[in-house]
Amino acid sequence: MKITSRFTVAVHTLLAICVLGKKYKMTSDLIASSVNVNPVVIRRTLSSLKAAGIIDVKAGSGGATPVKDAGDITLYDIYTAVDCVEGDLFNFHENPNPECPVGKNIHAVMDVHLADAQAALENELKSVTLADLIKQLNILI
Amino acid sequence: MKITSRFTVAVHTLLAICVLGKKYKMTSDLIASSVNVNPVVIRRTLSSLKAAGIIDVKAGSGGATPVKDAGDITLYDIYTAVDCVEGDLFNFHENPNPECPVGKNIHAVMDVHLADAQAALENELKSVTLADLIKQLNILI
DNA sequence: TTTTAATGTAACCGTTGACATTACAACAAA
DNA sequence: TTTGTTGTAATGTCAACGGTTACATTAAAA
Fold first, then answer.
1. Hey, are the CB atoms on B2 and A103 less than 8 Å from each other?
2. Which CATH number fits domain B6-86+129-140: 3.30.360.10, 3.30.470.20, 1.10.10.10, 3.40.190.10?
3. Residue B62 main-chain phi, psi, to 5 deg
4. Could you report the per-residue pLDDT of A33-45, keeping only the tens digit for each?
């Protein structure tokens, strides 16, 4: 079980838009050739990022542009934009037996810790902005 | 996408073995009735926990018993025992374009942060032991 | 020794989600 | 009006999950 690649695709897409957008019109085809996926996959990604208010996409004439400052976009924003996880990260078995002392209390005992683990992951993603990645990238280019 | 319920099933299973094991013979059928899944699912769970050296299972006569002290079993141990995640938590798109400055460096820029996020999750799971859960549970029973 | 009750596993099924791809309508600018 | 692009529906393939049946194996009790 892994978290869908929609996430890394979305980050890649945003980096491309931010870094290459000044020089090129960032169409789904161009981005797709950098990410190396089908252009429709990129259009879906762009659609999600647009819905999240992160970018603007021009229908017809084409091209995606950032709406927010890269310093104000965290990895967590992107993560949620593309719906990597619906609600809880951990899948909990349904209907534990309420007649059993363990089944009756399993949620009371576990839920906090599962939430903590999920929060730890998400906080780490919140601590990194797109600007951080762009800075790193510009050093390497 | 969610992390497989094998994890919460395994925790539930272990709690049942530790808490109810003194009073009852913990067969896959009994555990299954507490968790509310098919007994074969529990046998698969027991098999994984046994392979990880966490419990002992008696073939034939039946019954599962703990091998390690509950204070020495973390949620992370259980998490890995049932193979919730094979290696990396985040799925990375394959073959980003090396001809593109973004595609060429996307791994160099992202990998550290993905690893950090995964480590944050895992460290949180490492910080909780089965003994912690048992203590909580005994208060509620 | 036979019976009984479990475990260990293989096999198969249905469901779900991911990702790829085709197709085409809608759109905006040249 | 032509052209290039976006938006999105539809379809296909594949893998993983969880459910279930079936049965050989095992160990202890009768």
1. no
2. 1.10.10.10
3. 90, 160
4. 999 999 999 999 9
